[in-house]
Amino acid sequence: MKLAIVTLACATQLPFGARPQSQTSKKCDLTVDSDCMNGCNLFAGGIAKCKDHHRTVYFDFDGTIEQKDALAHHVFAEIEKNTKKCHEGKTPTDKKECASMTHKAFSVTKTNTVSNGCADAPHCYPSVDDAWLANTSKSIEVAGKTETMLVGTEIMLSALEVVRKASGNFVEKYFEQDDPAGKFSGKGRVKMMREEVEKLKKTTEVNVLSASWAPIPGAVWRQYLGEVTKKDLNIAFNNIYGIDDPGGSAASNKGAVVADQAKKHPDSKPIECAVHVDNSFKYARQVLALGGGGVAVVKNMGITKETFELLLGTDWKADGSYKTGDTCIAEGP
Q1: Of 169, 202, 253, 333, which has the fewest beta carbons less than 10 angstroms from its beta carbon?
Q2: How many CA atoms within 13 Å lie on the side-chain side of 131?
Q3: pLDDT digits (tens, 9 = 90+) for 77-124
Q4: Containing domain of residue 167, as a range?
């Protein structure tokens, strides 16, 4: 799906979490991730379209639910270490160990031809390791539903367990760190997110929407996130969406997922009532370009209680428009 390219301007930014009393437009640089922490175009369809049970919120995972992208780095590094040892090993011992790494490593290497967004092949992985999409005999629960575990998920969970054991306090290390700027405490953050998700779910569909890291398939990434959100965080999201990474510097199309859900459910999930929350605001801009809303998060802190307060859907003006957040408009002719 090809997205329209628009230049946007936001209303004057207020201190994070403050509710605007009046709005005066100014040009703002939406390439700066923090520019719309107050929210842009939240529930632009108004109360007529965005009434209770007609709103959808999509939270990114790495750097948004998780705080600093560190967990993904560490899990990926563990798999990559095994892959390098397996494919690049020269001795008989290496080859024997490689044969035992069926459930520890990628089946592909960085020398594979890449045709989907990787600018510096052969130094990149292909976008997807297809061998990872085979079924295992195991099952896994994702967003409350049991399904067949994929081979790649088994590999990721093996790497995740190594990271868990090395972390000391896993939840604290990746989800409850204090804000480096000293404005927010990370203590109790997971409990806060769990409670706020449950509160929001009373009126709003609350989802996770996250892009994988090539060559991990999006379907595997989704199951991996299902494990972390259930076992480590005990947060029950309505749905978890995992999408493929095109590879290299190319951006995944998260906006297409939101648009597809709106197309399938035009009455209950209109695009004007969808909001994407992401530490990399370029993905929220994909949804803004389609008529939805976006929220940036505090760098190295992720979502906070203030983020959830922007999304409650209770703050409406007399004319039916949403009072909370900034107004973003398309610039130019």
Answers
A1: 333
A2: 10
A3: 999 998 888 777 666 666 666 666 666 889 888 866 555 556 565 568
A4: 28-71+114-333
